[in-house]
Amino acid sequence: MRKIGLVGWRGMVGSVLRKRMLEEKDFELIEPFFFTTSQAGQTSPVVADEVYTLLDAYDLKALTDMDVIITCQGSEYTNDIHSKLRNFGWKGYWIDAASALRMNDQSVIVLDPVNLSLIQESLATGIRDFIGGNCTVSLMLMGLGGLFKANLVEWATAMTYQAASGAGAKNMLELIHQMGAISSSVGTQLDSPEFGILDIDETVTQCLRSAEFPVDSWGFPLAGSILPWIGDAKENGQSGEEWKNEAETNKILGNIESAVSLDGLCVRIGAMRCHSQALTIKLRKDIAITDIENLIDESNSWSTIVPNEKDATLEGLTPAAVAGSLTVPVGRIRRMNIGRRYISAFTAGDQLLWGAAEPLRRMLRIVLDYLD
Ligand code: NAP
After folding, report:
1. Active site residue 72
2. What is the pLDDT of residues 169-183, one digit of tens each?
3. DSSP states of 257-310 as a string?
4. Atom 40, ligand 1: residue with shortest CA distance
5. Would you say the CB of residue 12 lies under 6 angstroms from ligand 1?
6. How far does residue 71's CA lie from ligand 1's centre (Å)?
7. Does residue 275 have an active-site annotation?
8. I need a surface site. Which of 71, 86, 88, 118 has the fewest CB within 10 A?
């Protein structure tokens, strides 16, 4: 059996990865080794009826013994360890959730339902670094990849509604604390007829602006508000998250000479783990909406069409409906008033599954098949 080193397995992405690997019985195919940056020598949780002694994630000797390393530890770890391993002569496969290596020439961004042939060609040419994509980009391509693959997209904008989980577990917990603080601030006012809605609204606004409101992780109120900036600032005025859309989409699709133009605004909202996005797409040609829906529906086993009807949309095209599922619904597909080649679409997807862990565990399977 191949030796597989797991780093970052107890973080948020790593926990979802382990859960999915157990569900899909991946552990039966590998000899796993659990590494940690902080708990070497301690024991792992029970994984497939076994408990493992945790190894030091900075021990290059132990790491170079692995055929494959999957890391969900973060870019700081990748930047520290990856080049040391390669300089050490390690020829194993590096599968990574962090963004650090995504745009390297010697890396492929993995999303196999969309770019399996690129992944396979890269393996055959000796590429050994396979990196999970940005969650919003991966979810857009899982939903609308059929249109990109058919070369129908001239340009698109993605206006995002991104969940708290993208910022990590601490931030998810703080969002819930913020919700609780708002609810507590109005307390009995909610059910007392003497308090009108304007009184209650004023209490909530004061609560959001008070010095006691819990904002250690977010910096600002997210519950009862939104945060229209995600990531660092680029010189052209984009946020880092917005920059990734065009760059990573074209890299995933292997569009070396014919990049599709993409842009948009990325906004954090108070959803827990599902990112949503509203797209405006300019098509290269005028085609029927039913043809568009068929291309989307048939492009992979997880994209589904939600009819552009109120009940179906509110039932099936929301973070509340989609959380915990691998399905990526796409709806609100209609021709826009601004011209026949302009269509709208809305998609929602679990950002911890297709947006983070799932492409990594599937890449492990692809590498295992390749090595056999
Ligand atoms: P995370 O939850 O902060 O976990 C990272 C590491 O923190 C863990 O592996 C663990 O390392 C350490 N840690 C310290 N205290 C912990 C505690 N109480 N519980 C669990 N872990 C603890 O990070 P993440 O959100 O999973 O993200 C990991 C990487 O994936 C990042 O590069 C991120 O950018 C990328 N990514 C994240 C998402 C997302 O949605 N969050 C999506 C795509 C990509 P030790 O065991 O070594 O101490």
Report:
1. no
2. 899 999 999 999 999
3. SSPPEEE--EEE-S-SSEEEEEEEEEESS---HHHHHHHHHHSSSSEEEPPSSH
4. 166
5. yes
6. 10
7. yes
8. 88
